[in-house]
Automatic annotation (TrEMBL):
NCBIfam families: bacter_Hen1. Its cofactor is Mg(2+). Belongs to the methyltransferase superfamily. HEN1 family. Residues 275-323, 525-559 are annotated as: Disordered. This is Small RNA 2'-O-methyltransferase. It comes from Kitasatospora cinereorecta. Residues 1-253 form the Hen1 N-terminal domain.
Amino acid sequence: MFISISTTGTAERPATDLGFLLHKHPEKVQRFSTAHGMAHVFYPEATELSCTAALLLEVDPVALVRQGRGKGRGGSPDFALAQYVNDRPYAASSLLAVALRTVFRTAMKGVCEHRPDLAGQPLPLRVELPAVPVGGQGDGGAVALVGRLFEPLGWKVDAAAVPLDDAFPEWGDSRYVRLVLTGTLRLAEALQQLYVLLPVLDGAKHYWVAPDEVDKLLDAGEGWLGDHPELGLITRRYLARRWSLTRLAMERIALARLAEADDREAEDFDNAVQDADSADSAGAAGAADGAPKGATGADASAGPAGSGQPGEPDGSAEKAQPLAVQRRESILAALAETGATRVLDLGCGQGELVAALLKDGRITEVLGLDVSSRALAAAARKLRLDRMPERQAARVRLVQGALTYTDARLKGYDAAVLSEVIEHLDLPRLPALEYAVFGAARPGAVVVTTPNVEYNVRWATLPAGHVRHSDHRFEWTREEFTGWAERVAGRYGYTVTVRPVGPLDEEVGAPTQLALFRLTADDPTSSTAATTHSTAVPRTAASTTTASITTASEGSETR
């Protein structure tokens, strides 16, 4: 099993700098022990104008077959082709990928202590692999698949299929290709791409694929994997088609893309489900920008005083029905008015409203969307999707996405609900949500609830001037909310009515305010609105999200 990496240079920038990057001296032949054989590193050529580093991996095929008889991490029966016919010592597979990571670990990390300036510089590279196995080739055959994987990364691909037998051309080509890659990029990037894509091409691994393989994939794929057009294929094949691991990897990649788009940390988007010892552990997920909704109003009435959450209003003589329950009932009543049967829960959090909608026999389909994979996983557990009867499971779907991006999956529904979501957005981002929901998805009706800031003075444990949850970016008065609702309705061709939710105070109103938007009968899609707000939506959800949870009816595993 052989691979060579070459570069060219000048007198000012000698090609032998490759030795500094690889941490292997060009004048030495070095040996390294790996799990399945001995790796040799040497330099067939090392001048200031041209330098080539070669890695030769000697594999014991008999030992590999013996290991492959077992199950689990120590053996992979699918990888041991046969006891007497085995291509593993010769073909560039996951064995070579692991050897690259073992021998060139520091180089793969982009670290060069002796010459720190070299690590970040692109080099003219040439990578040669005499025999690369390509399994499950798909349309176009082995050569086409190699091109689909490497060309989007900036490589020029020269791949030639190896015939089964030169003496019998009528037998056709084998599944092996001779591969030469040329391109200008950082050496660390090249090694990381080879580490991921060699086993992807082969379609198999010589060891059991455990959950830690997701971390390896994302570490090696940082900076290039998320934007690759064959992301799904790479992820599936690298993780040996283990769907639970593939789903996890795709969720984490989607969160990383959203975080990069918003110049934030990925953890900020996936904080909807708090740790057990968190003071905000009762919070639910806000889908718009990944922040926890938290308990608002009487949602937190059971919490102790001084916990940072509002308690019961001053002077409450007896425990009233929780505001969260009153809010859900008001939402369900508003949806009943519209006659909606297919409903979106945008910012579904841990699925409380989804569960209530499923109990309504008039609702035939519910799609719950949230940016937090942790919240979606919690919702799937709470709804018991894996144990739900097939007919019931067919009514519900949980997907990952952000409401500040347009999403084709949200089109065509009768109604959408934004329950305690908008207040978690920074105000400059609110127009993007308005366009994504009212302008692009355009459901027949939209129900929006949000806190009434005027009512905050009635909460005994809420300090003056504080919002109800630490993540609320704003809370509106009744006049401000009504003004916003009327502006949105006029801009996108809806009518709107605003109503109170919860106990009504003559002076400050109700704790929650609800707006029911209805698309006008003639549905005058406003081209002006689309023009006005298209600049607020820089990307579509298709480029930043993945459908990460599907119904249990599609398999025994909640996906």
